[in-house]
Design a protein that fits this description.
Chain lengths: 212, 212
């Protein structure tokens, strides 16, 4: 064999091995393990810049019924050029980028019910561009839930899709670590079908002491 | 020689294809609003309404008088309140001028939801112009209130249209309220000196007028 052809063969084989290894290990994307972060340190979620500052238990009376809540407080800045929200139906609201790490032995998982911004005595839900806003995220505690001394909150990463089939104006959604498909039934329409869920990349784990 | 020319031609065609892709119209240019420009003190005439911005004020806090059901409140700005006082009149049929934004160098600010009324489920404590139904021949004067960082005020412009998501129920992207909207862009005359006057010592206890 001609020496030049042999070199070309070695180079081709080396490239194939390198590409195969990258493909098998998930490529050159950065590792997506959440970084342990102390309370009060800013976390860049790309859609929000977030400082989780505390957690406490509160009893909220609504419609004549008292409910025990876990409240997590954060300073949130919206770095984008559009007004965003603290709570709503889509993934691109602040509260939907927060996940409680929960152990089954502590009882039923707290249920996210609302997130409101607070300024003095005023409650609101908009996160205007570049205005640092104090937000309280509320989780309803079931009767059998035992709250640990500390809770760990994971924060999701977001990414912007410039344009796509669904919306050419562009939109924000969780940065996907992977996708999961599930067969589900809509409780309102009773229609069934396959639904794809995003499993988000988590950028930070913040451990917060819970004040009773 | 012919082979080199063929390769060069193929490369040139590939570059041209990529360049053509990036020179297509943006979504906003292709489907965005039909804009009429104006400035403070001038009447801007749109097909369904006219708007004249009369004055722009700054405020640190807004006082809300007590009502039969609520106590007196003081609402604090996270940045500074920019209160745009304007007169709007419908031209042919009843209309809402519900899509208002303060366009700044930091991005687009929606009217603050600190006055309440979010989601249309409750009555705001002060009625902004976005909640008013205008009738032909009956001009009404009122306010749009924005909460913005002081540094965003210089050069800010008011964007107002009568479109909302319900008004554009055609096409694939029908939920875009700005698609083909008739939009008034009003220069508020906020040069650096005027912005500094509004933001350096904004008054506390500002009373936002109810629509006349």
């Amino acid at each position: 064999m001609h020496p030049r052809a042999r070199v070309a063969g070695y180079v081709t084989a080396a490239v194939l091995v390198a590409v195969g290894t990258l493909w098998a290990t998930g490529g050159l994307a950065p590792a997506d393990a959440p970084v342990p972060t102390p309370p009060g340190r800013e976390v860049d979620q790309h859609l929000f810049r977030t400082r989780l500052v505390g957690a406490h238990v509160a009893t909220i009376k609504k419609y004549g019924r008292s409910t025990r809540m876990l409240v997590i407080n954060a300073w949130v800045t919206n770095p984008t050029r559009e007004t965003l929200g603290t709570y709503g139906l889509n993934d691109d609201v602040f509260a939907h980028g927060m996940f409680l790490r929960w152990k089954a032995r502590d009882g039923p998982r707290p249920k996210l019910v609302d997130a409101q911004a607070i300024a003095g005595d005023t409650l609101f839900r908009s996160l205007q561009p570049r205005l640092p806003t104090y937000v309280a995220v509320q989780y309803e505690l079931a009767a059998g839930t035992r709250l640990p001394d500390q809770v760990t909150v994971a924060l999701a990463d977001y990414q912007h899709t410039d344009s796509g089939v669904l919306d050419p104006r562009g939109y924000w959604d969780w940065k996907a670590r992977r996708y999961e498909r599930a067969h589900e039934t809509n409780p309102l329409t009773h229609k069934s079908g396959w639904v794809t869920h995003i499993i988000p990349v988590l950028v930070a784990d913040v451990r917060l002491p819970v004040k009773p | 020689m012919r082979r080199i020319a063929s390769i060069a031609l193929a490369a040139a065609l590939a570059c041209a294809a990529v360049a053509l892709q990036s020179t297509r119209w943006s979504y906003t240019r292709a489907y965005g609003p039909f804009v009429r420009n104006g400035r403070i003190g001038q009447t801007v005439t749109e097909p369904r309404f006219t708007i004249r911005v009369d004055r722009v004020d700054g405020a640190r806090t807004i006082d809300v008088p007590p009502t039969q059901y609520t106590k007196a409140q003081q609402i604090t700005a996270t940045g500074v309140f920019v209160v745009v006082l304007a007169t709007i009149e419908a031209r042919r049929s009843p209309v809402y001028a519900g899509q208002a934004r303060l366009h700044t160098r930091y991005g687009d600010y929606f009217p603050t939801d600190k006055l309440g009324g979010g989601g249309g489920l409750s009555q705001p404590v002060v009625t902004p112009l976005s909640y008013v139904r205008f009738e032909p021949g009956l001009p009404r004067r009122g306010a749009y209130v924005f909460d913005v960082p002081p540094a965003a005020v210089a050069g800010a412009r008011l964007y107002v249209s009568d479109h909302d998501a319900e008004d554009a129920p055609f096409g694939f992207y029908r939920d875009d309220p700005r698609r083909f909207a008739a939009e008034a862009h009003v220069d508020l005359g906020l040069d650096t000196a005027e912005a500094a006057r509004l933001t350096s010592r904004p008054p506390s206890g500002y009373s936002v007028p109810e629509p006349s």
